[in-house]
């Protein structure tokens, strides 16, 4: 393993620890928020972008706006449910179980986020060092195979973001 592998694993573990802190319900909201937001944004970004001219730049901006709003709305809903659920988690066993499941979902969220980021980094490379690190990284190769599942959810404008770099 190279240093890049350790960096990727550290990021995933940190997101897992955030999930541990948030608990199961809020972590579930984060994971579902990402999926729901990607689906909504990929479906509705043209409607918003067309209001501003429909250029590639506006397609990307519209996608990011819809994605961000959807993540926040889903996150807020699950935050409220999580606060209600906290009443039940005063019991020691339930609290531990809630945090453990939150850790697992946080790790899943970290894997999804890093998979998508690496997929875009490979598709639109910024410099040779990143490409070299990714090509020699065991963890990156695994994450890239996962990321290939998510890339089709993003609009063509986001997939062509290289033209803006």
Automatic annotation (TrEMBL):
<dbReference type="GO" id="GO:0009403">
    <property type="term" value="P:toxin biosynthetic process"/>
</dbReference>
<feature type="transmembrane region" description="Helical">
    <location>
        <begin position="31"/>
        <end position="48"/>
    </location>
</feature>
<dbReference type="GO" id="GO:0016020">
    <property type="term" value="C:membrane"/>
</dbReference>
<feature type="transmembrane region" description="Helical">
    <location>
        <begin position="60"/>
        <end position="80"/>
    </location>
</feature>
<dbReference type="Pfam" id="PF02674">
    <property type="entry name" value="Colicin_V"/>
</dbReference>
<keyword id="KW-0472">Membrane</keyword>
<keyword id="KW-1133">Transmembrane helix</keyword>
<feature type="transmembrane region" description="Helical">
    <location>
        <begin position="6"/>
        <end position="24"/>
    </location>
</feature>
<keyword id="KW-0812">Transmembrane</keyword>
<feature type="transmembrane region" description="Helical">
    <location>
        <begin position="134"/>
        <end position="154"/>
    </location>
</feature>
<feature type="transmembrane region" description="Helical">
    <location>
        <begin position="100"/>
        <end position="122"/>
    </location>
</feature>
<dbReference type="InterPro" id="IPR003825">
    <property type="entry name" value="Colicin-V_CvpA"/>
</dbReference>
<protein>
    <recommendedName>
        <fullName>Colicin V production protein</fullName>
    </recommendedName>
</protein>
């Amino acid at each position: 393993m190279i240093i890049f592998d350790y960096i990727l694993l550290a990021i995933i573990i940190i997101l897992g620890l955030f999930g541990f802190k948030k608990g199961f319900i809020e972590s579930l909201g984060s994971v579902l928020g990402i999926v729901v937001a990607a689906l909504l944004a990929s479906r509705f970004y043209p409607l918003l972008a067309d209001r501003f001219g429909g250029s590639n730049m506006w397609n990307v901006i519209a996608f990011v706006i819809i994605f961000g709003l959807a993540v926040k709305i889903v996150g807020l809903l699950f935050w409220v449910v999580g606060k209600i659920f906290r009443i039940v988690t005063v019991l020691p066993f339930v609290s531990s179980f809630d945090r453990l499941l939150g850790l697992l979902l946080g790790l899943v969220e970290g894997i999804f986020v890093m998979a998508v980021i690496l997929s875009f980094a490979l598709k639109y490379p910024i410099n040779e060092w990143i490409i070299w690190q990714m090509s020699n990284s065991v963890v990156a190769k695994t994450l890239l195979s996962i990321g290939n599942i998510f890339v089709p959810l993003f609009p063509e404008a986001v997939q062509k973001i290289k033209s803006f770099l």
